[in-house]
Amino acid sequence: MRFAIRIDMIWQPFMLFLGATRGNCYLELHGGELQLRFGPAFNHTISRDNVIGASRGSWSFMNGMGVIAGGSTLGLVGSTGGIVELELRDSVHLRFVGWARGVRRIAISLEDPQGFIDAVTSAGPSPEPTRPTPQ
Fold it and tell me: For the whole model, what pTM was predicted?
C-alpha cells in the first residue's frame, strides 16, 4: 500500500530543489518492510517489525520542510498538516546527501494520515523475544 506524502502548494517550488514531487514522495508498506521515499535523494527501507508506534503528531514550519533531522527525530515533511509520528524500537541509520543520522522517531506529513496509521498498526508490532524464566 502506498501513502502519498503531503506537500502544500506553497512549499512545492522549494521541494523542487530536492527533486521532490508529489509523484516521488511516499511511504509504501510491502510485506514486512516500510519504504520511505522523499525525492530521488532519500530512499530507505526499514523493517516493519521495528515500528512500535504510529500516532498523529504536529510539526511547526519553524522546524523546516523537506528532509529534516534534529536530535533522534527525522522529518519527511512538506506540510504542517497530516503529521504522523513513527516510533522505532531500535535506532536506524538513514543517509541523505552525505550525512547519516541515527533516529528513533520519524515525523511524516501524509495525505491520508489515519489510513496509514491503520495500515501500519493493523498487524501490530512483532512481540519482544521471550526468554525462558529460570526455575
Answer: 0.84
**To 10 degrees, the CA torsion angle through 86, 56, 17, 26?**
70
3-state DSSP of 58-115: CCCHHHCCEEEEECCEEEEEECCCCEEEEEEEEEEEEEECCEEEEEEEEEEEECCHHH
Instruction: Give the tens place of pLDDT for each residue, 45-65.
Output: 999 999 999 999 999 888 889
User: How many residues belong to the chain?
Assistant: 135
CA atoms within 13 A on the CB side of 119: 17
What would the grid cell of residue 81 be?
498538516
| Sheet with 66-70, side-by-side order of all strands | 51-56, 83-96, 99-109, 73-77, 66-70
**pLDDT of residue 133 exceeding 60:** no
